[in-house]
UniProtKB/TrEMBL annotation:
GO molecular function, one term: oxidoreductase activity
Gene Ontology CC: membrane
Domain of life: Bacteria
Protein name: SDR family oxidoreductase
Keywords: Oxidoreductase
Native species: Marinobacter nanhaiticus D15-8W
Family: Belongs to the short-chain dehydrogenases/reductases (SDR) family.
Matching Pfam families: adh_short (PF00106)
Length: 263
């Protein structure tokens, strides 16, 4: 086991929302950080703030995980720095803004690349390194949508279901060597995600019971992976909704999904 002073955390999608809050939480816990996102200016500003506030070493990598070569470049750069990742947060993600029929394939391909292919590559390649050292933690950000009926014309829920199932599978194998993987499945969270998607006005009409702040979500995910829990659904309301969704008959799930008006 490495000492705390030498532990390093890598967070994707670190420039905002859940990723940014994970950066603060892990810096507060004493981890040195590698922050990954597309927006270098925001990363550098965040890195300067974290280093000054918590006294940790913070490095930035401006990478677009929609590029199939990005995960390899990240792993190679970590190796060049002579560092190893002890805590990985796979947070980067987005959702296509239009239905399957209305979307161009490159947009859907990027959605799959970022949240399926890149996430899986980073989880497995860094996970194997953790297994060889006998220590490590991985949080993959899934969603409460992973339990919900799939809306018509939307890949996002299927992708998040994959993240949930892949995380559980990895945890079953990795935990034998002291490495824990948790699928963090938040519901509606106060971040800029809905602004980017153009759905802020729609989701703002939901009652406050549906919503959580990013810090609460991150705290739940952090405690869950340290406790070795493979799935974390933050909040009693979300746990109830997720549990009810899982027991719906498949025919009913299909009917509910087909009536969804997402776009």
């Amino acid at each position: 086991m490495t000492t705390m002073s030498k532990r390093t955390a890598l967070i994707t999608g670190a420039s905002a929302g859940i990723g940014e809050r994970f950066s603060h939480r892990l810096a507060r816990e004493g981890y040195n950080l590698i922050l990954v996102a597309r927006r270098r200016e925001r990363l550098e500003a965040l890195a300067e703030s974290l280093a000054g506030k918590y006294g940790v070493d913070v490095r930035v990598l401006s990478e677009d995980l929609g590029d199939p070569q990005a995960p390899s470049r990240i792993i190679d750069q970590v190796q060049t720095w002579d560092l190893h990742v002890d805590f990985l947060v796979n947070n980067a993600g987005f959702a296509a803004k239009t239905s399957l029929v209305k979307s161009e394939w490159p947009e859907l391909q990027q959605e799959i690349q970022v949240m399926v292919t890149a996430l899986t590559e980073l989880m497995i390649r860094f996970g194997k390194q953790m297994v060889s050292r006998g220590y490590g933690h991985i949080v993959n950000v899934s969603s409460l949508a992973a339990f919900a009926p799939t809306p018509a014309g939307m890949l996002y829920t299927g992708i998040k279901s994959y993240v949930l199932n892949a995380s559980e599978s990895a945890d079953m194998e990795f935990k034998r060597s002291g490495v824990h993987v948790t699928a963090l499945c938040p519901g509606f969270t106060y971040t800029e995600f809905h602004d980017v998607q153009g759905t802020r006005d729609l989701v703002s009409k939901l009652p406050s019971v549906f919503w959580q702040d990013a810090e609460t979500v991150v705290d739940a995910g952090y405690r869950a992976v340290l406790a070795g829990r493979p799935v974390c659904v933050p909040g009693a309301f979300n746990k109830t909704m997720g549990g009810l969704s899982r027991i719906l008959p498949e025919a009913l799930r299909y009917r509910l999904g087909s009536r969804g008006r997402i776009y």
